[in-house]
């Protein structure tokens, strides 16, 4: 099972990150968490990795619908989007919202996952278009 979608951008990381935030915003997602993995790995382990940020994207209406079906789905929220440096460019990856359906085996969540997937895919597509 493929659990993510991705796009490669011919932009350096420091330009890609704000573009991703804007693309998510245009699709109704706010960034409610942000984890700088490079800083975390350096601080906690003394290890170096490429610029790598995990954005926790949330569309409140979709999150409310999902929680209305199954309160435990908060474990799968927010929708994670990774922005990471890759050579001269960047890679943007998003978790496929269908995991909300497949992991707990809840077919009644399919419409919410479909809508979240459509919006997240549109955000990714807007970055490469």
Automatic annotation (TrEMBL):
<dbReference type="InterPro" id="IPR035923">
    <property type="entry name" value="TT1751-like_sf"/>
</dbReference>
<dbReference type="InterPro" id="IPR005180">
    <property type="entry name" value="DUF302"/>
</dbReference>
<protein>
    <submittedName>
        <fullName>DUF302 domain-containing protein</fullName>
    </submittedName>
</protein>
<dbReference type="InterPro" id="IPR016796">
    <property type="entry name" value="UCP021774"/>
</dbReference>
<feature type="domain" description="DUF302">
    <location>
        <begin position="35"/>
        <end position="97"/>
    </location>
</feature>
<dbReference type="Pfam" id="PF03625">
    <property type="entry name" value="DUF302"/>
</dbReference>
